[in-house]
């Protein structure tokens, strides 16, 4: 999500649906090694999920999992609660394949984060902390950065 766009959207009274609020499923904490991706999984070709980038990003996700565990929620609930705490004009819509994940994601609306927790999350996972680009180089040229 481009930070510069939020003030303009808010000035115009336009809401935002953040793209991939669970980081293509990585923020669920369920993916712990590259081999967890099926052989035909498109994430195998994403720079964020390859080599050192995977390891660096997994470290960030594991911090998120640890914080979620302390709060008694799942990593995905904590991630979605953080997005929801950014403003009433943001509506994260995570993709899901199973009802149990849908129910877990919906329960994120009940997760309340204190200002200290929000600050800690922002410090732990600052904007731009993810290693690697979202798409392979050839595709990045087509993305409005």
Structural key phrases:
about 140 residues, about 45% helix, mainly alpha, single chain, TIM Barrel
Helix/strand class? mainly alpha
Strand coverage percent: under 5%
The CATH topology: TIM Barrel
Mean pLDDT: 91
What's the CATH first level?
Answer: Alpha Beta
The structural domain count equals: 1
- Shape descriptor: globular
- Helix content range of the residues, please? 40-55%
Per CATH, the superfamily is NADP-dependent oxidoreductase domain
Gyration radius, in Å: 15 Å
Distance between the termini: 9 Å
* CATH second-level architecture: Alpha-Beta Barrel
The H/E string reads HHHHHH
Largest sheet: none
- Give a count of the beta strands, DSSP E runs of length 2 or more: 0
Task: Please give the count of helices.
Answer: 6
Unreliable spans: none
Task: Provide an overview of this structure.
- By secondary structure, the protein is mainly alpha-helical.
- It has a single domain (24-140), classed as NADP-dependent oxidoreductase domain (TIM Barrel, Alpha-Beta Barrel), CATH 3.20.20.100.
- The chain is 43% helix and 0% strand.
- The chain is built from 6 helices and no strands.
- The chain has helices spanning 5-12, 51-71, 75-85, 99-106, 115-124, 137-140.
- The mean pLDDT is 91.
